[in-house]
Design brief:
By secondary structure, the protein is an alpha/beta fold. The protein has nine helices and five strands; from the N terminus they run αβαβαβαβαααααβ. The two termini are 25 Å apart.
């Protein structure tokens, strides 16, 4: 979502109690955070894979450095929202799909902002993620290796498993996550690595909100 789109989203009268600040890179946000506190940081997933990974890592870093600050993700579509929700529900205050209508987006955003400073423990349930669809330890391990560039034969060697077994686990992971390609699974792997374990790296955000 562009800055123009984000400004339009925040133009609703119901968000008039908040001041919105936009940041195009991590350094700008980092400097701002050192000078003032933000009620909420909202990250819009977009750009290249590297930019997206940097953005995901920032949200994890924020959970460690600024635990009282809300962290909200604007996902590109419902599939991506489900992926984020499924792989990294802990500590996120909300996950919103950009494909929703403007009215729905604004309503969801206002609802999350009104939840004060506590983590919305039901954020991942917005997408009705069932515990029966959780990845197995082997499936999660495969995604982790994929995120670091390992091939299927290399993963089989690392996990001391037959290549056919690894491919079967990979297929199961794709089915559970609702993705149909290696690229989709790689995106899921990036989410798993860069959000679910807080504080591993650094990244950037697109907008931050302060309450009056």
């Amino acid at each position: 979502m562009t800055e123009v789109g984000l400004r339009h989203l925040f133009a609703a009268a119901s968000t008039e109690n908040y001041t919105v600040h936009f940041f195009r890179d991590y350094l700008e946000l980092k400097e701002a955070l050192s000078k003032r506190g933000f009620f909420s940081v909202i990250y819009s997933l977009s750009g290249s894979r590297e930019q997206r990974r940097e953005g995901l890592v920032l949200l994890s870093e924020l959970s460690q450095l600024y635990p009282k600050t809300q962290r909200i993700i604007l996902a590109n579509d419902e599939r991506e929202a489900r992926l984020v929700s499924h792989l990294a529900p802990s500590g996120l205050h909300g996950i919103i799909s950009k494909t929703a209508s403007l009215d729905v987006l604004q309503a969801q955003l206002v609802t999350l902002l009104r939840e004060t400073r506590r983590v919305n423990v039901n954020a991942h349930n917005h997408w009705y993620v069932s515990s029966s669809r959780m990845l197995s330890p082997t499936e999660r391990a495969i995604l982790q290796f994929m995120a670091y560039g390992y091939s299927m034969p290399e993963i089989a060697t690392q996990l001391a498993r037959n290549i056919k077994t690894i491919r079967a686990h990979k297929f199961n992971a794709m089915t559970k996550l609702g993705v149909s390609s290696d690229m989709g699974l790689l995106h899921a792997a990036d989410i798993l690595i860069n959000i679910s374990v807080p504080g591993e790296d650094y990244m950037m955000a697109e907008s931050a909100v302060t309450a009056h």
